[in-house]
Amino acid sequence: MRLYVIISLAFFVWIEMSPSSQTNHQNRAEKVYHTFLKNYKEFEQSLSNFNEAITINKTSSIEKRYYRLRHTFKTIEPFLAYYVENDYNLYFNGAPLPQLEPNVPEVTVLQPKGLQVIDELMAADTLAVAAIKNQISELVKNTHQTKKILLGIHCTERHLLEACRSQLVRTLSLGLSGFDTPGTGNFLQDAISVNQSLKNILSNFKDIMKPKDLIIFDLLAGFNAALKHEIGNEKVDYIPLIKQYINTLYKAIKQFHINAGIEHTAEVNNQISPLNYYADNIFDNNFLNKSPFSKIHPTDKSDAKITLGKILFFDPILSLNVNKSCATCHQPKLAFTDGKEKSINTKNKNVFDRNTPTLINVIYSNKFFYDMRSSKLALQIDHVIYNEDEFNINYIELKKRLTSSTEYKQLFKAAYPQSQSNINRFTITNALTQYVSSLSGFNSEFDKFMRNQIDHIDEAVYAGFNLFMGKAACATCHFVPVFNGTVPPAFTNTESEILGILSVNNFNKPVLDNDPGRSKGGDVRQDSEIYYRSFKTPTIRNAALTAPYMHNGVHHTLNEVLTFYNNGGGAGMGLKVPYQTLASDSLGLSTKEIEQLIAFTTALTDTLNLTSTANKLPFVPAYENRIIGY
Predict the structure, then answer these.
(1) Backbone dihedral region of 185: left (phi > 0), alpha (psi from -120 to 50 degrees) or beta?
(2) Residues 547, 612: Cα–Cα separation, whole Å
(3) Which of 19, 152, 167, 461 could form a disulfide with 603 if both were Cys (CB 3.0 to 4.6 A apart)?
């Protein structure tokens, strides 16, 4: 019997590894790839047809051909965004805002291009024919250039399935939120077109799917029906679209992918991407990998390093005058803020120009500080160490202090046994980075509801999320599920916004805050008028605990913050705010709707295992000028 099993297994392996089996896998990928190229041609043709309608200015066909253009684009979007993410954002479907050309030393402003710009133009009261034709011309040129890249791609089954899951995240965060359709708001029809593309891709795997995997197609059909049902509704019900369909599909495709034995990104060359491919739900606690953000490889992570970083975080030994620790401004009970409008400096005499942001989930960013001047958390720590208004010290002095402590020498040796000099600049910043990275979690009441761990949430929370995704347009800047400015599904870019923030908490007599923000953060490559008064978009998770708000702490309640947005920001209140990224029109939110948005924001509170952090240290860190062993 045992011999029979061995022979059977060997035969099965031979079949799987045989040239014919490999050919079947490759033929499947090639078939989908050729269909994609065919659909790409259809997109090019629909672009030409739309251009023709605009040229002759035939009103009856312009809108029809525009929506045909969007449909053909959405059929290729999963591939285009997966294979050429940079081109997708720069030329095809990026935000309709100017940006700086990346990876060049000069400050070169790139004007917005692509379908989002066209979508805004299509919604204008008067059709801007010349502007639309200019956008079409650019899009035609870029489709030809990008096609050269696409023709050289080696498509695999892994790519297809990863592209499908990535697209589900995109549909949720950038599609259903209205981010992709800033003018027409035609996001429901877009999602239907994308679903058809996903169905066409996944249908090619039916021959190797087990009966339980076929639920994928029932879910896609149900999703389409639900989307069609919502068309025409003034208030879209987003929660069932996400819970019943997007999240369920996200899990089902992953399960098929892994069970089918098809390699995936987590296996190939030890690649670490922001998306954790093993996550089942977009609101899972482990939805994102921290390594791409912290710049620390998973193999370098350890509990010993986190513990050491925790102790350093609470110990004023890091400041020159031994009177200030990281926790002075980042207090656990206040979600790692300090509750002040602006932070107090080391000398306790003056205040900084800016508010203290939360550290919970701060790791899910690609830029740090309000002005985004630091590209790594370790570099942010450097800024604090050296800044004369903060710790005002250097690593030579820090090493001298820490090596004078028996406890610290033991902790550093345990955390970094391979380092010749256990206590140095790298180990100090690495330990602090690992601790701050650990201050994360998607365990709020709302997260638990979205992953079906609890069955009910308050009606006001439910309504607030629908407003957040819809009428209030919050999700077009605070992207689901992190609810910050790091853009899904690649999570490789963190955005900033120009809101026209006030310097006084008075909406009747508003005065504009003149902090230059990102444009004067110290990076000369960001020194542009398009970033003047621009600030990093923070997470709204735990916002109920982090008052006061905005970079300058000008607003003391969430009601005031929402009133500011409801007024259209600074420009909406009559102030001159060049390049304001927030629409200046009023959102038209009622008092009840503002209360519902506050209820939703409060439901994102999650300080599990964080508020008692200081009480869980291996030994009590030094406070009030008392340094351990020094």
Answers:
(1) left
(2) 20
(3) 461
Render pLDDT for 375-430 as a digit per residue (tens, 0 to 9).
999 999 999 999 998 999 999 999 999 999 999 999 999 999 987 789 999 999 99
Torsion of CA 336, 339, 340, 345, to 10 degrees: -30
Tokens in use for 556?
């003391």
pTM for the full model?
0.92
Closest listed residue to residue 242, CA positions, set 172, 194, 308: 172
Distance, CA of 324 to CA of 316 (rounded, Å): 5
Phi (first) and psi of residue 570, to 5 degrees = -60, -45
CB 486 within 8 A of CB 494: yes
Q: Strand 534-536 relative to strand 99-100: parallel, antiparallel, unpaired? A: unpaired
Alpha carbon distance 71, 120 (integer Å): 17
Distance (Å) of CA 144 to CA 47, 74, 115: 12, 18, 16
Q: Where is 186: in which H helix or E strand?
A: none
| pLDDT tens per residue across span 215-262 | 999 999 999 999 999 999 889 999 999 999 999 999 999 999 999 999
* Strand pairing category for 109-110 and 496-498: unpaired
CA angle 233–238–243, rounded 5-degree value: 140
* Cβ-proximal residues to 496 (8 Å cutoff; 6+ apart), any chain: 367, 372, 485, 517, 518, 531, 534, 535, 536, 537
Q: Using CA atoms, how far apart are residues 115 and 129, in angstroms rounded to an integer? A: 15
Whole-angstrom Cα distance, residue 390 to residue 392?
6
